[in-house]
Design brief:
By secondary structure, the chain is an alpha/beta fold. It contains 13 helices and 16 strands. It has a six-stranded parallel beta sheet, sandwiched between helices. Helix 6 runs parallel beside helix 8 and helix 7 packs across helix 8. The model has no long low-confidence stretch (mean pLDDT 97). The structure holds 3-phosphoglyceric acid and magnesium ion. The site of magnesium ion (MG) has 2 residues, from loops. The site of 3-phosphoglyceric acid has 8 residues, from loops.
Length: 386
């Protein structure tokens, strides 16, 4: 985008403004703030800026007030210091003066969006002179507003947020300063298996947390009581550990944990050695010794990739492991890259934004890139540039 003269051009700008909304108010505006520099530079260049985004997963062809971008328009206007009107029937054509921006209502209200309909994509393309794809967090979706429109628009290019995200991921994964350490938390090995496999081939150390760590612990024969773990993934966890040993990659497991008999805000938390977890107990966080050990090992890292919390940090008594790791990442001099919805919530909760080198707006897109998958919305831009 930065190579083009956008003056008086009709720019169709795809952002990912899919943010959490409660009672008509945006509760986390991180993605809106991430899109601001691109919106501003289009406006300052004198473009007529039509902004596209989805919100949630509405039923296609039906307007649903609960998934209207109206709250996003409000927050975007506040942040820009300029009114950004919301247009509901934007496919019919939108009036927009040079230097102004208009927000088009949720792209997923349109029939054909999810299925990347050619007819819908052509209609979108006819609204613009330049299509700018900037929605990294939706780049793993081949939909009409992320993929199809890029085929038919007179010009199609990547926006600065998308470029910045890809550069950060490449820096962390393709030519990382070593040691490269990945921290993968979250509940299931099964949903993160390809991520774990892909990372194992690249990293020097793989720290696991959450239900994933429980499954690894169970695979080494440790009794995990009623902890969230996947009994049918034990062989796979063992295979990953064998592969790690063969490569010389460390997968350090927690040596102590925080347990409780119930998962609730009022639950009483106890610290245990991993060998003392009761049959009626659940592991809900890594323990203080493990947190300190993992944290200290981040001090010498050259690059850190973080996805997923280490415990149930929504409840403070199970959040200390995630807090310790978040703080250690922030303290480390490594190039650190974090992504994923829960990870972002943890970063916000513990106030460590400043210490993290790059915070990705992507959840699914971030993980698919780490897995080595092609992002269709990026591939189509590359094919048009070729
Ligand atoms: C996300 O939040 O992961 C992106 O906005 C993509 O949304 P989707 O998973 O509904 O396609
Ligand atoms: Mg998603």
């Amino acid at each position: 985008m930065s190579d083009l003269d956008l003056k008086n051009k009709r720019v169709l700008l795809r952002e990912d403004l899919n943010v959490p909304v409660q009672d008509g108010v945006v509760t986390s505006d991180a993605r809106i703030r991430a899109a601001l520099p691109t919106v501003r530079s289009c406006m300052e260049a004198g473009a007529k800026v039509l902004i596209l985004s989805h919100l949630g997963r509405p039923q296609e062809g039906v307007y649903d007030e609960k998934l209207s971008l109206a709250p996003v328009a409000v927050r975007l206007s506040e942040l820009l210091g300029r009114a950004v009107p919301l247009r509901r029937d934007w496919l019919e054509g939108v009036d927009c003066a040079p230097g102004e921006a208009v927000l088009c209502e949720n792209v997923r209200f349109n029939k054909g969006e999810k299925k990347d309909s050619e007819e819908l994509a052509r209609r979108m393309a006819s609204l613009c002179d330049v299509f700018v794809m900037d929605a990294f967090a939706t780049a793993h979706r081949a939909e009409a507003s992320t993929h199809g429109v890029a085929r038919f628009a007179p010009r199609a290019c990547a926006g600065p947020l998308l470029v910045g995200e890809l550069e950060a991921l490449e820096r962390a994964l393709e030519s990382p300063a070593r040691p490269l350490v990945a921290i993968v938390g979250g509940s299931k090995v099964s949903t993160k298996l390809t991520v774990l496999e892909a990372l194992l081939e690249k990293v020097d150390r793989l720290i696991v947390g959450g239900g994933i760590a429980n499954t690894f612990l169970a695979a080494t024969g440790v009794g995990v009581g009623r902890s969230l773990h996947e009994a049918d993934m034990l062989d796979i966890a063992r295979r990953l550990m064998t592969r790690a040993r063969a490569r010389g990659t460390e997968i350090p497991l927690p040596t102590d944990v925080v347990v409780a008999k119930e998962l609730a805000a009022t639950a009483h938390a106890d610290i245990r050695s991993i060998h003392e977890v009761g049959g009626d107990e659940m592991i809900l966080d890594i323990g203080p010794d493990s947190a300190e050990h993992f944290g200290a090992s981040l001090d010498s890292a050259g690059t850190i990739i973080w996805n997923g919390p280490l415990g149930v940090f929504e409840y403070d008594q199970f959040g200390e492991g995630t807090r310790a790791i978040a703080t250690a990442i922030a303290r480390s001099k490594a190039f650190s890259l974090a992504g994923g919805g829960d990870t972002l919530a943890a970063i916000e909760k513990y106030g460590v934004e400043e210490g993290i080198s790059y915070i990705s707006t992507g959840g699914g897109a971030f993980l698919e890139f780490v897995e080595g998958k092609t992002l269709p919305a990026v591939a189509i831009l590359e094919s048009r540039a070729a």
